[in-house]
UniProtKB/TrEMBL annotation:
Record GO terms (molecular function): metal ion binding; metalloendopeptidase activity
Domain (Peptidase M16 C-terminal): residue spans on this chain: 182-359
Similarity-based family: Belongs to the peptidase M16 family.
Pfam families named in the record: Peptidase_M16, Peptidase_M16_C
Biological process terms in GO annotation: proteolysis
Residue ranges of coiled coil: none
Start and end residues of each Peptidase M16 N-terminal domain: 29-175
Protein name per Swiss-Prot or TrEMBL: Predicted Zn-dependent peptidase
UniProt superkingdom: Bacteria
């Protein structure tokens, strides 16, 4: 009989010890034990998201995110929520394009209860017909609420412009049509195909003992033992358009225009990712950033402007978001492009490089002062990268980035034609 494989991965400079066990059934179980913390966070990370769905099943992962809290043979939906809230904890979940995460935060003394409730919900959900119909209505309301938020919808238009009709270009929640058409049987089949122990990571951080946690997880997630351990078969994303649309405008009677300007980049496994993060900080990472100083402070044209990146297994995105008066949208778009052109031509200064690095370092270390962020680090690293990088190594990689590397990534990424998505009371002709 195969035995669990356990090893201590890293000694965290913040005082935690990270330990990993791979069970014979393929489940990765990780903990970061921080004895000084009186809280604990536990998460179940599943390697399935919206990009694993066929067009007909668009929104299935998000549908399951709702349904897995609706009841098991052991607990009703009300009993699931009451169990955690009775001890002052909270439960939640989110769906991304390449994974789904379910998590709970409790006092360390209540971790056994949290693991039992989480494991029961994720591994033994009934996905009952009646619950599917109830949540169908809830999700349709959620889609309607998002449609009323132009600051959210502009990103959907942006993604669609970059990736077309492929999985990365579709809304994570699906569409009104796909959510209405999806059957309970289809959702149960999707659940059985993707919610397997070999496609999952369970982790905890805070006041937790690793050996005790492994025992709790093995028992709580036992209902998944019977599911076939077959290699995950991620759907190949439809080929994105060779040339993304340069401008997509959605006319809406809003008081403020919402703009996203950006482009496709590279995989999360690309060595240039750290340099890209620093570039985002320099361009739009705070009040001292170039975009904020140029467009808000000097010209007073926006209230909010920021730059960000996002990475997947095979591609990524760079984007600048801005909110401005509708009559200034075209000017703001041109000013954003001017700042991007400037950094392509001249790179970044030594002072900007140092500030960009420090913003990343301090943001990471401040976040790690709570158990939830540490749990997220474990789950994301193991599920998406296949291993957990120590904070020391991650910070060292950030510190090692040079100005030449930032200049090179700016030239590679920002010299390509930009795509603009805009929502507001205007049409394409209003952008010169």
């Amino acid at each position: 009989m195969s035995r669990p494989q356990t090893r201590t991965l890293v000694d965290d400079p913040l005082g935690g010890t990270v330990t990993s066990t791979v069970l014979p059934n393929g489940l990765h179980v990780l903990t970061e034990s921080v004895p000084a913390l009186r809280t604990a966070s536990v998460g179940a990370w599943v390697g399935v998201g919206s990009r694993d769905e066929t067009p007909e099943l668009s929104g299935a992962s998000h549908f399951l995110e709702h349904l897995l809290f609706k009841g098991t043979a052991k607990r009703s939906a009300a009993e699931i929520s009451r169990a955690i809230e009775a001890v002052g904890g909270d439960s939640n979940a989110y769906t991304a394009r390449d994974h789904t995460c379910f998590y709970e935060r409790v006092l360390a003394a209540d971790l056994p209860l949290a693991v039992d409730v989480l494991g029961d919900s994720v591994s033994a959900s009934l996905v009952a017909d009646a619950d599917v119909e109830t949540e169908r209505g809830v999700i349709l309301e959620e889609i309607a609420a998002s449609a009323d938020e132009p600051s959210e919808m502009v990103y959907e238009y942006f993604n669609k412009a970059l990736f077309g009709s492929g999985a990365l270009g579709r809304d994570i929640a699906g569409t009104v049509e796909t959510v209405r058409a999806m059957t309970a049987g289809q959702i149960r089949d999707f659940y059985a195909a993707h919610y397997r122990l070999d496609n999952m990571v369970v982790c905890a951080a805070g006041g937790v003992d690793h050996d005790d946690f492994v025992k709790l997880v093995r028992e709580a997630f036992a209902p998944l033992e019977g599911r076939a351990a077959v290699p995950a078969q991620r759907l190949a994303a439809d080929a994105p358009p060779e040339r993304p649309a340069p401008l997509v405008v959605s006319r809406d009677d809003t008081e403020q225009a919402h703009l996203v300007v950006g482009c496709r980049t590279f995989s999360r496994l690309d060595d240039r990712k750290d340099a890209m993060g620093i570039l985002c900080n320099v361009l739009g990472g705070g009040m001292s950033s170039r975009l904020f100083q140029s467009i808000r402070e000097e010209r007073g044209l926006v209230y909010t402007i920021s730059a960000s990146d996002s990475f997947f297994a095979d591609t990524g995105t760079f984007s600048v978001y801005a909110g401005c008066r509708p009559e200034k949208a075209s000017e703001v778009r041109e000013l954003i492009q001017a700042e991007l052109d400037k950094v392509v031509r001249g790179g970044v200064t030594a002072e900007e490089l140092a500030r960009g690095k420090k913003m990343y370092e301090v943001g990471l270390l401040m976040g790690m002062e709570d158990s939830h962020t540490r749990m997220n680090w474990l789950g994301r690293e193991q599920l998406l990268y296949g291993e957990v990088t120590s904070l020391e190594d991650d910070l060292a990689e950030n510190a090692a980035v040079t100005a030449d590397q930032v200049r090179a990534v700016a030239a590679d990424v920002l010299s390509q034609p930009m795509t603009t998505a805009a929502v507001g009371p205007f049409d394409e002709k209003d952008f010169r």
